[in-house]
């Protein structure tokens, strides 16, 4: 059983002031009314009423808040725990870790871009270190970009963090410059890379030295394409196997990961003429050339949408196909997923083309699922991308080239087929339903200069496309009913089924035409199929028709399949 209960009223006279107890009472209403009155009279900026229940066993009060009004309590600065007093990086060697290099690449992005280098090269090239040290302001700004957010997150003083990172960076820079002066990094002009790797095997600083050797081979090059070509040359000259080969390939792979992570570098390597969608398709072809070639053999149309990969990119693709540089392959595959889930259009000036390239990417990435990415990751990315395909802006741009409402309906049906995700399917279905239920759709189909039979065939084809779009049952029924009603209006005006039933033609020929209408092959299901079915039944029951069919039993067998499709007993 709960013990005695009372209510306590606390107030804060100013925003930064602490809560102070003003009143304690056993009447809840009195405590709440007093709190509201204090706040109304502006005697405090905030009030709080708590319910205090005494536990008879422990004789302690359990507190619960029942009212809080006024200015929110200011967030208190988190106290620095003992574990937080140390920085993420404690020594110069910590700057070489992947996450540290990624941070260096972000805070020095503009400077590195101007130098045509990566963070890995900065950590291994004395010439780059000397240029950065001479710039002064670039380095200071980079330290602030690192220290201030960390200070806000941990509560450590910003100036202490800046001093810590300043000392850390100075030590790392001194290490690289000293190594350059002492000739620690062998020059490949007079020595082979394989020989250097063999002699470094077993050395304690072999990773640092080999990084300097590989980075030094890029000193005289500007531009991503020639740098990638040089890295492929180094890979060709690497030792055949064992630890020396791994030492070389790891250093090359780390530079490749940073080089290809930059959007400008990727555009230069793959071709500046490619748009976003073409660039992503080229990356997929470079990462998974075997799977893409198999898809092209199966569907030659993909060759028109998948950009060709040549030069250094093709050389890299061959190595990725052989299983080399697995971290780079995974990094590029995930970059494609990030871009697909991002807001950038794949084909900014060509909405129908965006559907084409998105479908191509979906097939390509699904073919690589299990090796680079999981199928769930691919599906999630395309579901997220599909959200941008059902927005009003995209749909408007998508149907702008259409001259007729029938063209719009066909394009929207294609949109329904290519989006993924239940909510995106529903959104696309709403666009299509609004199109086929509009008065404009019915009016244009009625005044169309084509024959009634041709109009019904077009609507039947549209119906089959809607069924293949994998929409929800409710949406499919609504859209098919609207198309069927339009077909019914066209058939009623032309009296097509009645004309067929009374045409001076052989009975098997008339039955075939009526049953194809009833089965939905040459007309949309709905009023037209029902009328055709009724006329076919009448014709079957006519004595002269039965006599004609009995006289030519070979004509009955082809009709049985149509009768089954039309829902008639054979």
TrEMBL record:
Start and end residues of each stretch annotated as Disordered: 72-93
Source species, domain of life: Bacteria
Compositional bias ranges of the Basic and acidic residues kind: 74-86
Protein name, entry field: cAMP-binding protein
């Amino acid at each position: 059983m709960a013990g005695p209960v009372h209510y306590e009223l606390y107030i804060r006279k100013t925003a930064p002031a602490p809560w102070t107890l003003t009143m304690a009472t056993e009447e809840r209403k009195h405590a709440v009314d007093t709190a509201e009155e204090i706040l109304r009279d502006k005697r405090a900026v905030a009030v709080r009423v708590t319910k205090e229940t005494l536990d008879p066993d422990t004789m302690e009060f359990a507190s619960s808040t029942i009212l809080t009004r006024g200015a929110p309590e200011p967030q208190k600065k988190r106290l620095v725990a003992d574990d937080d007093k140390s920085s993420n990086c404690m020594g110069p060697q910590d700057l070489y870790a992947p996450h540290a290099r990624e941070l260096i690449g972000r805070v020095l992005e503009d400077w590195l871009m101007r130098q045509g280098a990566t963070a890995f090269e900065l950590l291994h090239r004395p010439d780059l270190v000397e240029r950065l040290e001479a710039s002064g302001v670039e380095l200071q700004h980079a330290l602030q970009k690192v220290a201030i957010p960390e200070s806000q997150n941990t509560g450590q003083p910003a100036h202490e963090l800046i001093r810590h990172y300043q000392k850390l960076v100075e030590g790392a820079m001194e290490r690289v410059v000293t190594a350059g002066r002492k000739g620690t990094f062998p020059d490949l002009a007079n020595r082979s890379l394989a020989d250097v790797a063999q002699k470094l095997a077993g050395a304690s600083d072999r990773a640092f030295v080999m990084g300097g050797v590989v980075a030094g081979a890029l000193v005289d090059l500007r531009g991503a394409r020639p740098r990638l070509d040089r890295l492929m040359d180094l890979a060709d000259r690497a030792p055949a196997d064992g630890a020396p080969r791994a030492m070389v390939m790891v250093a090359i792979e780390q530079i490749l990961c940073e080089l290809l992570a930059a959007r400008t570098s990727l555009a230069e390597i793959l071709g500046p003429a490619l748009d976003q969608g073409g660039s992503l398709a080229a990356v997929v072809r470079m990462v998974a050339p075997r799977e893409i070639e198999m898809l092209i053999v199966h569907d030659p149309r993909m060759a028109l949408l998948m950009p060709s990969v040549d030069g250094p990119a093709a050389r890299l693709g061959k190595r990725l196909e052989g299983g080399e540089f697995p971290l780079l392959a995974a990094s590029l595959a995930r970059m494609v997923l990030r871009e697909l889930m991002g807001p950038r259009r794949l084909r900014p000036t060509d909405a129908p083309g965006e559907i084409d390239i998105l479908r191509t990417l979906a097939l390509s990435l699904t073919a690589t699922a299990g090796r680079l990415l999981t199928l769930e990751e691919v599906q999630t990315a395309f579901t997220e991308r599909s959200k941008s395909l059902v927005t009003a802006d995209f749909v408007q741009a998508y149907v702008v080239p259409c001259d007729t409402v029938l063209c719009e309906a066909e394009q929207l049906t294609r949109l329904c087929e290519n989006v993924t995700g239940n909510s995106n399917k529903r959104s696309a279905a709403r666009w299509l339903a609004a199109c086929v239920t509009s008065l404009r759709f019915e009016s244009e189909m009625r005044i169309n200069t084509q024959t009634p039979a041709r109009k019904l065939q077009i609507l039947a084809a549209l119906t089959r496309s809607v069924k293949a779009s994998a929409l929800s049952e409710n949406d499919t029924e609504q859209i098919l009913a609207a198309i069927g009603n339009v077909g019914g209006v066209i058939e009623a005006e032309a009296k097509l089924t009645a004309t067929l039933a009374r045409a001076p033609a052989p009975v098997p020929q008339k039955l075939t035409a009526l049953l194809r209408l009833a089965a939905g092959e040459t007309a949309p299901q709905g009023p037209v199929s029902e009328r055709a079915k009724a006329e076919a039944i009448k014709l079957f029951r006519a004595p002269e028709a039965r006599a004609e069919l009995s006289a030519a039993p070979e004509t009955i067998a082809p009709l049985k399949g149509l009768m089954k499709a039309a829902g008639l007993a054979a």
